[in-house]
Amino acid sequence: MSQSVPIKRAKRPRIGLYSTGLAEYWQQFPDLRERLIGYGSFIAEKMSEWGEVFNFGLVDSEGKARQAGEWFNEKNADIVFCHSATYATSAAVLPVHQICKAPAIVLNLQPTARIQYEKTTTAEWLAHCGACPIPELANAFNRAGIRFHAVNGLLGLDHTPAVSLTDEVTKDRPEAVRAWSEIEEWIRAAGVARTLRHSRFGFLGNTYSGMLDMYSDFTMLQAQLGLHVEVLEMCDLNRLVERVSAQEVKEKMAEVGDMFTISGNSSADPIARTPTPEQMEWSCTVAAAQERLVREYDLDALAYYYHGAPGNEYERLQSGFILGHSLLTARGVPCSGEGDLKTAAAMKICDILGVGGSFSEIVVVDYDDQTILLGHDGPFHIAISEGKPVLRGMDVYHGKAGSGISVEAKVKVGPVTTLNVTQTGEGRLKMIISEGWSTDGDIMRIGNTQTPIRFPMHPDEYMDAWFKEAPTHHCAISVGHNASVLRKVSTLLNVESVIIKHTSR
């Protein structure tokens, strides 16, 4: 199977949509109702690219609002968009969101950039006055304790309706492009929240002893993110290793040959060598078993680590982990080392968004290049690699027992975003987000992943700001600048977030 094909796909979000109106208008202005319904249908069609849309249509009375709220509950909507199509009383909107508790987003999408003042009729104006009721809605939402967000801009039509008295072609206007980018981000964020609520995270082995920031309360993770943690034992994996066939190993060998460069001996580090045939065969055997484990337990992500008595069979088993966990990470099942469930969640969030999410920590600072190298001894998200990753044989896994194969790679050159999921002293999760640029700078040849990242501030200033937020020492690297959509993810998850920005030291 191709490494680009996910073992488990992310859930498509379920999107609720309705348009506002005032029932009294329909007899007064005969064409207005159909015109507004048409705008709503356009919005629904655009949204359908990113999720499953449930368009209730017009809500123009308190009774219709209650029907809509119940309907969205029946459809199990993850997010509900209120298209402010024209003036509506707040009493004809508020019940939707009192009944359906899905996050509320109000769309203020004006169909035209500029009305024809000298020709405009009352009916024409009403088709463009979506902003008019939003202060009233905001006040009602606030007093009812309902959180909401507004998206303001242009509708983005590629044609002008026959009934219109003005030019409504706005699809290329920056106000439309920006508004639809924001709508897309809200929908993608809803997909993250939905997928996490249906996710099963494996916890294999234990947490690296003494890493106090890594320890996580499984109930806390389920309560705040909705994911289930399946506790696994090394004997579960060992049982599957014993069932791996020679053909499965051969197939894994072929996959590895397609995706990796096999290294020679490192010119610098005596413990980083060409992988031996025995190491390759064993790592591919373990990789086949790891995929079996994911399928048997229906896993969406995995945190793992094992420390046992020297020379026992499970220690040998964990020595083959990195290759297979890198392959799984590339196929939509992020794997985080050292038993770090919170970073597994960060990696999964990035992966659901389609932007990678590679396991990392601070490696070293390059003060000449003004970069911070982030990486780890594995695993690596191969789908966002700059060129083919390198496999190295390691005589020693530094700080850990055993030896085996490790992955040496760096993230694609260009914009990147780091996501750290930490835990506060109050027991709440917190997302720490920072944007930077992966450079083509040098990395060490020691069998570790390393990505030189230049942040928009001096490395010391960046570290000052990062450390003050009390992060865990691991983070996920994603490709692209994703702070905006990650902030929306945190909002929908009701998790605190902070974006590291330039500050005065």
Q: For the record, what CATH class of the largest domain applies?
A: Alpha Beta
Specify the biggest β-sheet: 6 strands, antiparallel, barrel
Q: Reading side by side through the largest sheet, how are the strands ordered?
A: 12-13-18-17-16-19
Uncertain spans: none
Would you tell me which CATH topology of the largest domain applies? L-fucose Isomerase, Chain A, domain 3
Q: Oligomeric state of the chains? A: single chain
Mean pLDDT: 92
Could you tell me how far the N terminus lies from the C terminus, measured between alpha carbons in angstroms?
Answer: 51 Å
Structural class: alpha/beta
Number of strands: 20
Radius of gyration based on Cα positions: 26 Å
Globally, the shape reads elongated
Corresponding CATH architecture of the largest domain: Alpha-Beta Barrel
In the residues, how many domains can be counted? 2
Q: What portion of residues is helical?
A: 25-40%
Q: Determine the strand fraction and express it as a percent band.
A: 15-25%
Supply the number of helical segments. 16
